[in-house]
Amino acid sequence: MTAALLTLAATSGHPTIPDVGVFAVAAAIVIAGAVGVVVARNPVHSALMLVMTLFGVAVLFVLQQANFLAAVQVIVYAGAIVVLFLFVIMFLGVDREEDIRAEPLRGQRPLAIALVVLGTTGLLLLGQVSKWTTGQPSVAGSDTGAPNVNLLGKSLYTTYLFPFEATSALLIIAVVGAVVLARRPPATSAEDAVDETPTDDVVTDRTPGAPEAPGTPGAVTTGAVATPAGADVDPADTEVDA
Amino acid sequence: MSISPAWYLGLSTVLFAIGAVGVLVRRNVLIMFMCVELMLNASNLAFVTFARTLHDIGGQVLVFFVLVVAAAEVVVGLGIVVAIFRRRASANADDLHLMKG
Known about the structure:
The complex is a heterodimer of chains A (242) and B (101).
Chain A: H1 2-9, H2 17-39, H3 43-63, H4 67-92, H5 108-129, H6 148-157, H7 161-182, H8 190-206, H9 227-241
Helix pairs in contact in A: 2-3, 3-4
Chain B: H1 5-25, H2 29-53, H3 58-88
Helix pairs in contact in B: 1-2, 2-3
């Protein structure tokens, strides 16, 4: 793989020392963060490693004169998407260490890694023998060296105006869909009340002894709202018992 | 003269491969989502590289759309995860083998 890259790299001119340094550091950050996402046992650590990778990719965007996209990358990905991930992780309470050495399916990991290595090698070899371009003229406008934001904005609001407007519809649909999906179903019938029972058991498992806290017998029906108060009372109760 | 595009494309390939391994190997739904984000970032890096190499701003426009679609995908996907977790109390993909809730 490295040999193929070296032969590819040898076909162009010599880069300057600072460019090489910035690229090497950013590439190391990207790879380390990506490996960290995959091997971290705690989902919170995975999310933080994802931030590291996203910053590295943003640096590589700057290095290729895509300044606007680098800013959007940091704001949207590191600022919004990862925060959403962290919010859901902590909302669900799955921020526990998990044992990733246990293999649920025998032979799955070697097979997966072999498949990916095979596909990657094939892709690199394909890059060696094929041409990158089709020779078709550009429809989006050429990169004439004008400021990046000007070029991108002009292309977005002229050539790609309809897709740009369609993304607004997509975002609205996504917001409405998320609200509908994550909405708690109204517990009006007895069937819904039965469905809610496993959830209550999980809450009990996560904070053991919380519903048994003294002084809150009437607040049990309020569920999640009463849990912090119960959790505050509970340690003192166990200490007295001990 | 700046770095050769081949290095960026090689890095993008490696990043995509790591993300693909993560999706195939990990069983936690949230981490599988993060690995999908890694793969999207790898494609974004390749798009920006081609935009610079071919002097065509279309690659960067496409990255913009990928960002929007990724944001929408994460919002809906995490909504589904929350809805599943409310029923099943598990973020493990192996536990989700029934379409019935």
